[in-house]
Amino acid sequence: MAEKMLVGPRQTRSLKRDLARAERKRKRNAFLLVLPLIVFVVIFFVAPIAGMLERSVVDTDLMETWPKTAEAVRAYDWEKGAVPDETVFSALAQDLSRSYEDRTAAAVARRLNYDISGGRSLVMGTARKIARLDQPPTSWRDTLIEIEPDWGRAETWAAVRRAAGPLTDFFLLQTIDHQRDIDGSIVPVPTERAVYLQIYTRTFAIALTVTLLCLMIGFPIAYLLAGLRENTANLLMILVLLPFWTPLLVRTAAWVVVLQEHGLVNQMLQFLHLTDGPIRLVYNRSGVIISMTHVLLPFMILPLYAVMRTVPPSYMRAARSLGAPPFTAFRRVYIPQVMPGIAAGSILVFIIALGYYITPALVGGAADQMISYYIAFYTTDTVNWGLAAALGTGLFAATLILYTIYSRLVGGVRGVM
Fold it and tell me: Looking at residue 189, what DSSP letter applies?
């Protein structure tokens, strides 16, 4: 009996070790199964977003090309005056001369040109004239100001200070139509340059309009499909998914043909005597909203249909039997139960619409381009990656805010239910 009692604890400890080993093995196998997905998300999602966020606040063009100038600018006591002394000008002359020989001055010229008008010509013109000097002058300060008087302006050195790096808020402030003045205070940009808040407003207005239209059109369709038999609903769902089988560029080009002055829509309107002549429906805001609504409508219908299929029809019958009018039963019984689908479809459509590029670029006019168009423009045409990254950061922040609102909304609905 005593021998059995001694064996029991050892067997228990052995069983616990075996269970713990089996649990560790199960967790390791589960981790290995999802490891490729984690690597994919990190490489193709997390890393690009981190790079975008970094590029919007990191400014090292001047620091890497003109290291002596950047160090001298950061060390100089700017309270003594807006234009620095000979020490800073001497460092500038050395960096200008070396960068001109290395053919790297264009990077700094481009960066200063973002901040001040004529920054590129200022840098390149000064570098060329310095290279022609036979011997170093007695005072680089007087010589550079004589070569290019803009080096004697406080605005020029304020731009150099803003570009000295390694961190900057220059690009982020631009996206909200603000800048730093000579003293470093944040002030609004001149009215003729205040465009980005207007672009953001236009982007959000178009995305919100498309979302509301998708909800107005998609809700009755999803409600109809949810009330049909499963076989019939699955058959009709093919029509909802049909746009996914057509390339986006083809669908957008088709809308250009359909909405043009002699297209199908104008012909039908004139045939029904609703208009006296063709109306302009393409290359304007109307064409953008119509085409985007068509493209994004399935993203609204699918979440709504998935939630509506889970709502038992008996709930509505019970509300009617208790004396509730049809609209009251629909509003107070049915809508709260499908609210997660409404929220999911709306946030999905809205976020996708925020970043749309091809459809507005092809169907819209110059005054209908969304923020994605300008991100592409600054990335490929002007190579202003800092501003492009800052605009992308604004969209990313808006997406996070919307997702937070969606999570709280869905959580509140579930709490009530």
Answer: P
Distance of alpha carbon 60 from alpha carbon 75, whole angstroms:
17
Compute φ and ψ for 64, nearest 5 degrees: -80, -35
Q: How far apart are CA 243 and CA 224, in angstroms?
A: 19
Range from 50-54, 78-82, 124-128, 183-187 carrying the lowest mean pLDDT: 78-82
- Nearest alpha-carbon partner for 394 in 226, 177, 229: 177
The closest of 254, 338, 334 to 300, measured between CA atoms, is 338
User: Read out DSSP for 369-417?
Assistant: --HHHHHHHHHHTS--HHHHHHHHHHHHHHHHHHHHHHHHHHHHHHHH-
- Residue 166 CA, distance from chain mean position: 24
Residue 276's SS3 state is coil
pLDDT confidence of residue 299? 93
The architecture in CATH of the region 196-416 reads Orthogonal Bundle (1.10)
pLDDT in tens, 373-388: 999 999 888 888 999 9
Ranking 10-24, 181-195, 295-309, 382-396 by mean pLDDT, the lowest is: 10-24
CB 354 within 8 A of CB 392: no
Q: Is 283 helix (H, G, I), strand (E, B) or coil?
A: coil
pLDDT greater than 80 at residue 31:
yes
Tokens 């680089």 belong to 140
Torsion of CA 410, 337, 240, 403, to 10 degrees: -10
The end-to-end CA distance of the chain, in Å, is 59
Q: The whole model's pTM is what?
A: 0.83
Q: Six-digit token pair at 124?
A: 């390149």
- Is there a contact between 168 and 59 (Cβ–Cβ < 8 Å)? yes
Nearest alpha-carbon partner for 218 in 315, 93, 304? 304
Cβ atoms 124, 106 nearer than 8 A: yes
Contacts 24+ apart (CB under 8 A), 201-208: 202/368, 202/370, 203/354, 203/370, 203/371, 203/372, 204/354, 204/398, 206/285, 206/288, 206/289, 206/292, 206/353, 206/360, 206/368, 206/370, 207/350, 207/353, 207/354, 207/356, 207/370, 208/350
Report the C-alpha gap between 97 and 316 in whole angstroms: 81
